[in-house]
Specification:
Number of domains: 1
CATH superfamily: thrh gene product, domain 2
Largest sheet: 7 strands, mixed
CATH architecture: Alpha-Beta Complex
Number of strands: 7
Structural class: alpha/beta
Strand content: 15-25%
Strand order of the largest sheet: 4-3-2-1-5-6-7
Distance between the termini: 23 Å
CATH topology: thrh gene product, domain 2
CATH class: Alpha Beta
Helix content: 25-40%
Length: 205
């Protein structure tokens, strides 16, 4: 007989949930305030990325400059311990709209978690030529696919680009969203500390 009991899996956003926002860090180090905008500010991801690449090219920023920022970053306070606890509890996949080339220097600080993200086109001078989406709305599609494999999916995010995966999941939870986003989507539970998030996850069946 087929097994009707579902295994659990948790899907996490990366920036803003486990690590600081890379673009905000780049804006701080470079002094280019225009790079501070994130998916919390602009819901249309293509519009945001086109804007970012335009600013990078205007200021001659390369992947080397971005790596200098990322290499100095540390996971958010408590993120490593939370992720270690969560990976012992159930399967974990990070669903992020960041890029593999951006985050490579940081992954070892979280013991190489599984990350589904996008990739960049880089020229010989390490200039970012373009960005390539692995799949449009990939977070929602990933959650939907996991549900089809008989997983019970909990999704955790903080930004506009997380809404579709939170909606698609069996359980959607905000972690440190802006008040604006939380007010726009009151159907999702809001947490602001890893300990609170752990307690909420422990209550899920």
């Amino acid at each position: 007989m087929p097994n009707t009991e579902k295994m659990s899996i948790t899907c996490l956003d990366f920036e803003g949930v486990l690590i600081p926002e890379i673009w905000e860090g780049l804006a701080h180090q470079s002094g280019i305030d225009e790079l501070r905008l994130t998916t919390r500010d602009i819901a249309n991801y293509d519009e945001l990325m086109r804007y970012r690449l335009k600013i990078c090219n205007q200021n001659k920023l390369t992947l080397r400059d971005i790596h200098q920022v990322v290499e100095q970053m540390e996971p958010l306070d408590g993120a490593f311990e939370f992720l270690s606890w969560l990976r012992k509890r159930n399967e974990v996949i990070i669903l992020s709209d960041t890029f593999r080339e951006f985050i490579e220097p940081l992954l070892h600080k979280l013991q190489q978690p599984t990350v589904f993200c996008h990739f960049l086109q880089i020229d010989d001078n390490l200039r970012i030529v373009n960005y390539c989406l692995r799949q449009k709305d990939q977070k929602r599609h990933a959650v939907k696919a996991l549900k089809s494999l008989n997983y019970s999916v909990t999704a955790i995010g903080d930004s506009y680009n997380d809404i579709s995966m939170l909606t698609e999941a069996d359980h959607g939870i905000f972690f440190r969203p802006t008040k604006k986003i939380a007010d726009e989507y009151p159907e999702f539970l809001v947490t602001d500390k890893f300990e609170t998030l752990k307690k909420e996850l422990e209550q899920l069946k």
